[in-house]
Amino acid sequence: MCTGIRLKKFGLLKEIKINSRFQGILLTPTGKKIVSKQDANIIKEKGICVLDCSWAKFSSLNINLNKIETRLRTQ
Questions:
Q1: Residue 53 domain-assigned?
Q2: Residue 7 domain flag
Q3: What does pTM read for this prediction?
C-alpha cells in the first residue's frame, strides 16, 4: 500500500488538488535547498506538501513553481 494512502487513512495528511493554492513548502526533485530548522515556522503555519507521483514524471506536471517555496527532497 502507498505511504500517502496510509497517512491519509490515519488522518495525518490532507489531500489537495494539483492546481490548489498552497502557501507552504513543496518538496521537489528540483528544489535548490534542503528542509532546515529555518523552515519550521512555515511548515507549522502553512504545511509541507509532497506529490504522490513518480519523481521521473514531475517535469511533465503542469505546476507553477514561481510562488511556491520549494525544497529538495533528500534520500
A1: yes
A2: no
A3: 0.67
Q: How many domains does the chain have?
A: 1
HSE-CB at 71 with a 13 A cutoff on CA atoms is: 20
Q: Which cell numbers in the block locate residue 11?
A: 488522518
Grid coordinates representing 40?
A: 519550521
- Tell me whether residue 25 is exposed, middle or buried, using C-beta atoms within 10 angstroms of its C-beta: 0 to 12, 13 to 18, 19 or more: buried
Q: What is the rounded distance in angstroms from the CA atom of residue 52 to the CA atom of residue 4?
A: 7
Range(s) of the domain holding residue 61: 17-72
Structural domain includes residue 5: no
Q: Comparing 37 with 5, which gets the higher pLDDT? A: 37
Is residue 75 over pLDDT 70?
no
Q: Which residue has the cell 529538495?
A: 72
Q: Give the residue among 3, 58, 62 at the shortest CA–CA distance from 27.
A: 58
